[in-house]
UniProtKB/TrEMBL annotation:
Residues 32-51 bind DNA. Gene3D superfamilies: Homeodomain-like, Tetracycline Repressor, domain 2. It comes from Actinocorallia libanotica. It comes from the Bacteria. InterPro entries: Homeodomain-like_sf (IPR009057), HTH-type_TetR-like_transc_reg (IPR050109), HTH_TetR (IPR001647), MftR_C (IPR041347). This is TetR family transcriptional regulator. The keyword Protease does not apply. Keywords: DNA-binding, Transcription, Transcription regulation.
Length: 218
């Protein structure tokens, strides 16, 4: 990474850190972009250059949030369905108590649920993630452009992720600790993903590549 890129990253991190500090202290809806700029010691325009929407100062995870399920499907193993890959990846994220699936701490979770603007932005995150997942499923299954199946599958899978994310926030705000939430989510994930098996267990299974028999042409 060059010096210019490093400085840009440091500036972005400083803005994000100061914004989060102010939001947690006073609530998201009671802090202005101008106040964030003062705290980060940058111009207001610098803040908006890095974060065009105020909501993204608090939810600085759009790209990874949207990308992960689609990436999981694209990188699934031989013989693995999209459903199985996503269930496996979700359980791994639960074990890691990953903030991307909602492990954000009580103060941050409360800030989100108490702000209509942030909850609305999160809905957009979920919608964008569903569209990205549908696009990858269509690509991975060579679906016809008029085939609605990838979108139907993505809607079901995204709904499970959305439900589990909301459950994580809800339990965090209620005061459950992360270990307790992890145990509950593991069981909820088994139920939620399992409910999709009748329709998706055999969908988008990656073909297993076998080696040719000895002496056969390559």
């Amino acid at each position: 990474m060059g010096l210019r890129e490093l400085k840009k990253r440091q500036t972005r991190e400083t803005i994000s850190h100061q914004a989060t500090r102010l939001f947690l202290e006073r609530g998201f809806d009671h802090v202005t972009i101008a106040e964030v700029a003062v705290a980060a010691q940058v111009a207001k325009m610098t803040v908006t250059n890095y974060f065009p929407r105020k909501e993204d100062l608090a939810l600085d995870m759009h790209d990874v949030f949207v990308r992960l399920p689609a990436q999981t499907v694209r990188e699934r193993g031989p013989g693995e369905s999209a459903l199985a890959a996503l269930h496996r990846a979700y359980l791994s994220a639960v074990a890691d108590q990953d903030p991307v699936i909602g492990f954000s701490g009580p103060e941050f979770a409360r800030m989100i649920v108490e702000s209509p603007a942030l909850t609305a932005r999160l809905r957009e995150f979920h919608d964008d993630r569903e569209k990205a997942l549908a696009a990858v499923l269509a690509e991975e299954t060579d679906a016809d452009p008029d085939d609605i199946t990838p979108r139907v599958a993505a809607a079901q899978l995204a709904a499970v992720h959305r439900l589990l994310f909301e459950e994580t926030l809800h339990r965090t705000v209620q005061g459950h600790d992360n270990d307790d939430i992890s145990r509950t989510l593991t069981e909820h994930a088994r139920t939620a993903f399992g409910s999709l098996e009748p329709s998706l267990a055999d969908y988008a299974i990656r073909e297993e590549h076998t080696s040719p028999p000895p002496g056969s042409p390559m």
